[in-house]
Amino acid sequence: xxxxxxxxxxxxxxxxxxxxxxxxxxxxxxxxRYKDLNAFITVDADKSLAQAKAADARRAKGEAGxxxxxxxxxxxxxxxxxxxxxxxxxxxxxxVAPYDATTVAKFNAAGMVCLGKTNMDEFAMGSSNETSFYxxxxxxxxxxxxxxxxxxxxxxxxxxxxAPAATGTDTGGxxxxxxxxxxxxxxxxxxxxxxxxxxxxxxxxxxxxxPMCRSAEDAALLLNVMAGFDAxxxxxxxxxxxxxxxxxxxxxxxxxxxxxxxxxxxxxxxxVARTVEAAIAEYKxxxxxxxxxxxxxxxxxxxxxxxxxxxxASSNLSRFDGARYGFRAKEYKDLIDMYCQTRAQGFGAxxxxxxxxxxxxxxxxxxxxxxxxxxxxxxxxxxxFKQAFEVCDVIMGPTSPTTAFKLGEKSDxxxxxxxxxxxxxSVNLAGLPGMSIPAGFDAQGLPIGLQLIxxxxxxxxxxxxxxxxxxxxxxxxxxxxxxx
Amino acid sequence: xxxxRQEVQKIAHxxxxxxxxxxxxxxxxxxxxxxxxIEQMNAVDTTGIEPMAHPNDSNLRLxxxxxSEPNARDKFQGIAxxxxxxxxxxxxxIE
Lengths: 484, 95
Fold this sequence. Notes:
Strand content of chain A: 5-15%
Number of helices of chain B: 3
Structural class of chain A: alpha/beta
Strand order of the largest sheet of chain A: 4-6-5-10-11-9-7-8
Order of helices and strands of chain B: HHHEE
Low-confidence stretches of chain A: none
CATH topology of one domain in chain B: Histone, subunit A
Order of helices and strands of chain A: HHEHEHEHEHEEHEHEHHHHEHHEEH
Largest interface: A-B, 71 and 51 residues
Oligomer: heterodimer
CATH class of one domain in chain A: Alpha Beta
Mean pLDDT of chain A: 97
Shape of chain B: flat
Mean pLDDT of chain B: 92
Number of strands of chain B: 2
Radius of gyration of chain B: 22 Å
Largest sheet of chain B: 2 strands, antiparallel
Shape of chain A: globular
Helix content of chain B: 25-40%
Structural class of chain B: mainly alpha
CATH superfamily of one domain in chain A: Amidase signature (AS) domain
Radius of gyration of chain A: 21 Å
Helix content of chain A: 25-40%
């Protein structure tokens, strides 16, 4: 039961082969059994089981919705009323959220069960889940390697079958890169598609929540719940939400796949390159055609991002001052010192680095050279995608330049760590939807992800293209040894 | 460009982060490396390019000026480090 997809669990619940309470107990037991992965920060069995029982009662009354009773894990960046919500940081180590994020409220309304809050890089700043105050997370495919980040706890939890699905958030690759490193299907929706209300802000013009799961079909089912306009998010887009499962089976004959030549150059591991090429060959068999496209400014995505994201973060994270909630330093001289000591003790090194980079980029005399310059580059990067989509329907390439790297391998070198998001970051800058789907393994048995990039609000096409590949391959069904 | 320890101390103060001298030295090194990465931006001429603040370029929505949220003061203050009589307590700022 624990290796089943969300769609399969829905069928089992409908057929009364299993109850939500039974499923919830099964996953809670597994979470406890594999706690050495450190995938969860908070588990609260009583709360989860109460939700499960309510879901079973709802089903008994004939009032079940599409996903009622299915458990899922929430990344600890989403506020959930009454749940400790830490965002991976010491500064929120005592923060019991007083309200629900819109995404959490929607899953609750759907009758889904929260299995707990998953570990993550502190404030989502990281690509390996090693910056969490609550300790590193291990990749179930090889526990000496990282699960990716920042949604590393969600990735490890689903990969190890501790949850059938989880939420993630993606500011520069934080859903897609961990999905690639742990053999999951991860979807970052278009900017504005999923509400950011109650999702603790890192970089507000880039952040998007999305599902991490075992199949494109599951991603469609979960996006059906998550997507939609929210008046509480000032950048939410008021567009109708289609039923994303409807397009899954569409024929992809004649689909034009754009391959950006910049995504297959220096820095790409050869096994990853071969695997991505094999996946493209599979698509050709399904009737797709390949066109070469160019994203000439993609080399600039990382420098551009490391101005914009830290600038927005330095502003967003100024709210953590020890005055109204969260951790407060014990000793201080005066109000300013209370802020300085609280923040010095409450934030970890990577978060401090990014706050300082952002503060510097926005400070008097440097704004034009850094922040404004980066915003202009952002326009060029977005224009590159517009041009590419004139000749193709979907862009494909690697999600991550390498497979999972060793714990500690890059944790002392921020610049090396930043480069692991080289293929994902430009998608956030342009606001486009992106997906990572399992496409094979390297010689060490570590998973490799194929990235799909769609047009703005083109999620239906993305899940369709991903689903068709998953109908003729079984990479996404593989489960790491010892967790099957 | 290379950041000095003094510049790092100044930035840290603007960001309201207390840092020690040894930390300032370490941050000067790592922030300088990050700025080195960032300065690759200068390779491209962006004269005349309109800055892009946001993926959806449209104006932000306006809403009517009506009360929309319930009063949850007690709930919010229940998780505060220090409160008294409905007020958040911080060190004295006015003598």
